[in-house]
Inverse folding.
């Protein structure tokens, strides 16, 4: 399944209200709960924090991909957040993250999880695309841009 097939307005927060790493993760997990994609916010949140404790998932060029494996997810799911101001996320280049792709998958489904991470890595190579995505001001804009990509 392509990552783009998982993206709908209900799993996008643009702009994010959160201004700190932990609250960004919480807001995106809560978005997935509200969209009916996961069944237990606390379990999902803890799985992402546990993964972050092993090393930040803040990449470069304003992108972060917090993720985790959790029984709270019945299948691969994603939430996307956009923070125009950026949030300190411990990124590799030291810059604040503006684009967040929170990925959750069941513990027994490693394949789709890895494929989703690879797809985000490919997308992130285009600075122009990432800049356009970071300037989106609504979930509809994010979905439209991703579907046109």
């Amino acid at each position: 399944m392509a990552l783009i097939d998982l993206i709908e307005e209900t799993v996008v927060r643009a702009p994010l209200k959160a201004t700190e790493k932990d609250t960004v993760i919480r807001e995106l997990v809560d978005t997935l709960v509200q969209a009916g994609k996961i069944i237990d916010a606390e379990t999902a949140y803890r799985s992402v924090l546990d993964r972050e404790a092993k090393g930040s998932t803040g990449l470069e060029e304003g992108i972060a991909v917090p993720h985790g494996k959790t029984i709270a997810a019945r299948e691969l799911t994603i939430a996307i957040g956009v923070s125009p101001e950026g949030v300190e996320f411990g990124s590799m280049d030291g810059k604040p993250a503006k684009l967040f792709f929170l990925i959750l998958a069941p513990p027994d489904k490693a394949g789709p999880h890895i494929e989703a991470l690879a797809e985000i890595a490919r997308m992130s190579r285009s600075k122009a695309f990432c800049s356009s995505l970071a300037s989106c001001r609504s979930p509809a804009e994010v979905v439209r841009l991703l579907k046109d990509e």
Remarks:
- Residues 87 and 98 are 7 Å apart (CA to CA).
- The beta strands are 12-13, 63-64, 67-69, 77-87, 97-105.
